[in-house]
Design brief:
single chain, alpha/beta, about 270 residues, two-stranded parallel sheet
Length: about 270
């Protein structure tokens, strides 16, 4: 049975990915908490910022490594010499690394892009994914959940700017589906994939879509506070083209109506 290591693996995407993969792979997770959500998943407790913790891991035993929580170039420096060219390495980067948006996201986007460039300069076999805003069940930063909570309780929704900027979202189950397909590859294709839903929405449109899916009273007025930095979405356009991943991996991304329906059933259960 092939072995997979997930850096992270105890929150949101990584948690759901480990639970899906464990049916067909031996799955280990490496994280600071030393926890996993399934007894079949082995846990390596450690801090990726600690060289001694990393040196305790035999990275060569893994067919694939999925890196969910690599944010700093210094973190990549610590692991790049430990990963064999025989190992498949999947880096979960971000749409923030896109040249159009990298400066808007500040250090987060610039660091993700720098790591991508560093990775491409090694002999590691890799694939890179760049998700847009990830939403869905068990999100520890509940962007859609924020709208649902405010609408359900008739509270003010805080929006950055005027809310007319266009954004993509992607449901967590689609990110997991993409990663699962990449894990199945015998050899990575050294490609960078955008991972986003098919459609773009203005933030104010997305709020209205959520309201309609919740079947709230049509006369209920949405209360919005504009130009607010506490918004779950930033105030600039953030749209990614998913054509390449749809063509290469045959991914069909979840439609907004279906994804919201599933999320709302979970939210109110």
């Amino acid at each position: 049975m092939k072995k997979v290591l997930i850096f992270g693996g105890n929150r949101f995407v990584g948690k759901q990915l480990s639970e899906v993969l464990v049916d067909n792979y031996q799955v280990d997770v490496f994280n600071r908490s030393g926890t996993s959500s399934d007894k079949r998943i082995s846990v390596i407790k450690g801090d990726r910022n600690d060289k001694e913790d990393l040196n305790r891991v035999d990275f060569n035993q893994y067919h694939t490594i999925v890196d969910m929580c690599l944010y700093l170039p210094s973190q990549f420096d610590l692991i790049k010499g430990l990963i064999s060219s025989e190992t498949n390495y999947i880096f979960v980067s971000s749409g923030a690394a896109d040249h159009r948006y990298v400066d808007s996201f500040g250090d987060y986007g610039r660091d993700k892009l720098k790591i991508e460039k560093m990775l491409k300069s090694t002999d590691i076999n890799f694939d890179i994914i760049r998700p847009s805003y990830i939403v869905g069940i068990n999100n520890h930063r509940p962007r859609i959940g924020y709208f649902v909570e405010k609408l359900n309780n008739d509270k003010v929704i805080k929006v950055a700017g005027d809310g007319k900027n266009l954004i993509n979202i992607v449901f967590v189950e689609d990110v997991v589906k993409v990663l699962q397909k990449l894990v199945l590859r015998d050899t990575p294709e050294m490609k960078t994939y955008n991972v986003s839903g098919d459609d773009s929405f203005m933030v104010v449109e997305l709020i209205d879509i959520v309201k309609k899916k919740m079947i709230l009273r049509s006369q209920q007025k949405i209360k919005v506070s504009y130009n607010n930095s506490e918004s779950p979405f930033y105030d600039f356009d953030f749209q990614l083209d998913n054509t390449k991943i749809c063509n290469d991996l045959g991914i069909n991304f979840t439609k907004i109506d279906d994804g919201l329906g599933k999320y709302l059933r979970w939210y109110f259960e």
